[in-house]
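INFO batch 0412 | record 1 of 1 | parsing
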Amino acid sequence: MAWDESKHPRKKENGRFDKKDGSSSSAYTDGVNARIAEAKELGIPVPLNADGSVDDLRLQEDIDKEKQFRARKVIQKCHEIEKLSRHLDYEVGTIISPDGLVIASNDGGSNVVYMDKSLLKGNIVTHNHPKGSMFSTDDIKGFIEGELLQLRASTPSGKVYVITRVKDWVKPNLLSDYKKAGTRGTEGAREVQRKFEEYSEFLSEYDAFCKAVNEYKENWLYENAHKYNIKFEVEWND
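INFO prediction complete | emitting tokens
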């Protein structure tokens, strides 16, 4: 198969690409400009080649490294906060910036905590669930309406449920579909009942029911999160 230079410009030894006239050149320039803008937003310098042009490959590497560093920093900050609230019998909510800075914190009740809605957009909220439950429908509603970047729910066992927005918007039917998960949908109710019967052999009825619902919702999010422009993960905070 012949090499199509217009679609796949050859890479030079210095990390730059040959640029041809036409749409491929325009797309290349747009891509470089977008990465330059992203680097400035992240506060990192733009690397240059000897001739003064942008070293695009190194620029992308630097951007990726900075994002990974910030992600680790945010997770570390979240885990520090989540450890402090792990064994409390009331909820504590904390708003954290994407850079890992604590913006606000608020104490709540045994199964609810209210946060300042004006501070939510684009940020992260972590809160504890004293009874070890999964995200509630109110949690999901707050995640969508608050335009959060990420929502976290920590439990006494150290298990942390995490949903993250991966695109600019979350599909609104996430809330209605999540409500159907667990005991509300017919299929979900049958699965929960099956698990409840299994768990009730060694747990109290209440604990067995909660465990069954949690497990169903967790599996549902693993299987369906991508349909709503979100990512679902489980972390362990030891």
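INFO post-check: The chain is about 40% helix and 15% strand.
INFO record closed
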